[in-house]
Amino acid sequence: MSNIHLSHYSKKTSKASGFLRPLQGRSPFQKATYWISQKIVDEIPPAPFSKGGRSRSKSIASQSPLSRQESFLWKSKNVNKRKVYASTIPPLEKGARGIWRNHQFSLASHLTCWITLALIICTTACSYDRERRGTSAPPKKEAAPAQEAAVEESPKSAYATSVYLENSGSMDGYVRGNTQFEDAIYRMLVDLNYWADTLSLNYINSQPIPYRQDISQFISDLEPQEFQQRGGNRGNSDLNKILAQVASQASRGEVSVLISDFIFSVKGGNTEELLNNQKISLYNTFRQQLAQSPFSTYIIKLSSEFTGSYYDKNDQPLSLDGVARPYYVWVMGPNNALQSLRQQINFSGLDGYQTSYLLSDGSASEPPFYTVLSNTLNTGSFRTDRDYASAEYVRGIEKVETGRRGETYQFSFTIAIDLASIPAEESYLTDPYNYQVEGYQLDSIIRVEQIERVHPRDQALIDGKASHVLVVSTKQTNYPDLSVSLLKQTPAWVVNTSSTSDTRILRSEEQQKQTFGLQYLVEGVEEAYEQVFNNQDTYFTAKVSVKK
Asked: In the prediction, which pLDDT does 168 show?
């Protein structure tokens, strides 16, 4: 082994290399330790030590290949010698070979970086040289495109679609400045344009006013001044007349979209009587159109800031500044068209979306799948009544016993049911107000995936078949049969959003969130559907036999 001398840097760092000693009178092992340590110091570049004094030494130690004697000491079976050697040159990683593997990788990484840098410099130099000579590299032959699964756009529907935006004076407040109204309508129109066979844009008040430019310009023009320039009778729009014009297209097999605040215009007299007259008029309009050809109506409620004049039931202008006000989008068209539309356009994702309501055209549908769950969300116990059961469902139970829930004793059980095919919104399906239950109390309606734990036996029974569960209970001990029906009725949000007075809208937050006469408007359309489609008042009825 050749003699080794300290570098100029190691002399300046005597504190860091103070563990080195003279070799005289030392054992072979001590000499080997000195030589290895000396290699470490000689390899250190002229840069400050990092925290810990020897941390750089530890890194560089492994870059020096071990001599035969050093290897012997490192691989020695003498545990004490290995411990001394390890304390002299602590490895970066735990384990005898960790330090060596780590720095082999480190050297390879540095080498790769230098080679890559050299290639970049050469390539840049060659390119610069070609530019100076006025030449360029020969064109590369493009590689054949990889065979990847193309992301296909959903095919366009076969339905012509017309959009009507009411531009009466009451709508000015939604389009003053940048508003949620503009963002929501813009997004909806873009999605409609991808879905519809053809899309036409119109303003409407006393009559339709075609708009000949594209969607982006249509949105850019949404300002009160543009509404005024488009003309028509902006002072007092007849909502019944507007709906009649729009619904007539739906009865011809097209899709019509009406955007409005849907506020009835009534003046003086008995407000409720005037609203009821409007309701009958609208009932007559929809009954005539539905009799010609069935179609569905999808009512979407949204909200946006409103800055401008609000006209109350007495036609008095009241100034609102940035107040959140509801408005509505009504989509009318064939049942298949609206099914496709609701699947491909995420109306609930529109800015300011709140809720919706679907009035179906009366198309027949199969009764939903339902079954009793024997071991999930139940209080008490029961057995399956084989007379009302099959391999696919359980619709009868017997030998019922109460169980304890908190401080009281009661009996409750769960029915899993598939509501996916019901033409109603989730908010409607999960509202107990919309169910009629006989013999029991309806405690909750829960989506299957929201249940914390479904018993494996029950899971096997409902897997892929049920969307919701209904939990019913009773404190009685006679245990009658269960009958539960989902009613076709006006959603609670329609009732809560409607008002018969709006004269205090400046001070009343409740009136600011309401729409004058909305309930009368919706009920007029509902009654037309009920009359034309044989007064169907329920979506389904599920029955369970219960024996004590």
From this structure: 86
Average the pLDDT over 488-498 and give the result. 93
Q: Cα dist. 254→9, 92, 159 in Å?
A: 88, 74, 6
User: Secondary structure of 363-425 in the HEC alphabet?
Assistant: CCCCCCCEEEECCCCCECEEEECHHHECCCCECEEEEEECEEECCEEEEEEEEEECCCCCCCC
Q: Report the distance separating Cα 495 and Cα 489, nearest Å.
A: 11
C-alpha 98: how far from chain center: 48
Tokens encoding 119: 């290639």
Cα 244 to Cα 117, 248, 285, 336, distances in angstroms: 74, 6, 6, 22
Give the pTM.
0.67
User: Is 61 exposed, middle or buried, given 0-12, 13-18 or 19+ CB atoms closer than 10 A?
Assistant: buried
Alpha-carbon span 318 to 325, nearest angstrom: 14
From 50-59, 359-368, 371-380, 487-496, the region with the lowest mean pLDDT:
50-59
Q: How far is CA 139 from the centre of its chain?
A: 46
Alpha-carbon distance of 327 to 261, in angstroms, equals 4
Find the length of the chain: 548
In 3D, which of 446, 444, 442 has the Cα closest to residue 426? Answer: 446
Q: Are strands 317-333 and 482-487 parallel, antiparallel or unpaired?
A: unpaired
Strands 408-417 and 403-405: antiparallel
DSSP 164-207: EEE-SGGGGGGSSSS-HHHHHHHHHHHHHHHHSSEEEEEEESSS
- The SS3 of residue 323 is strand
- Nearest partner of 306 among 264, 262, 261, judged by Cα: 261
| Range with top average pLDDT, 131-135, 196-200, 208-212, 357-361 | 196-200
- pLDDT, residue 360, reads 82
Close Cβ partners of 520 (under 8 Å, ≥ 6 residues apart): 264, 275, 276, 278, 279, 498
410 Cα distance to chain centroid: 38
* Neighbouring-strand partners of residue 495: none
Pairing verdict, β 198-204 and 208-211: antiparallel
CA-atom Rg of the chain in angstroms: 40
**Edge to edge, what strands does the sheet with 296-311 contain?**
208-211, 198-204, 160-166, 255-260, 317-333, 296-311, 353-359
Report CA 318 to chain centroid distance, whole Å.
38
What's the sign of the alpha-carbon dihedral 358, 496, 305, 320?
Answer: positive
Phi, psi of 417 (to 5 degrees): -145, 150
Task: Specify the DSSP class assigned to residue 86.
Answer: H
Mean pLDDT of 3-27: 43
10 burial via Cβ count (<10 Å: 0-12, 13-18, 19+): buried
Long-range contacts of 41-45, Cβ-Cβ distance < 8 Å, separation of 24 or more: 41/6, 41/7, 41/9, 41/10, 41/13, 41/17, 42/4, 42/5, 42/6, 42/7, 42/10, 44/7, 44/9, 44/10, 44/13, 45/9
Question: Cα–Cα distance between 193 and 208 in angstroms, integer?
Answer: 20
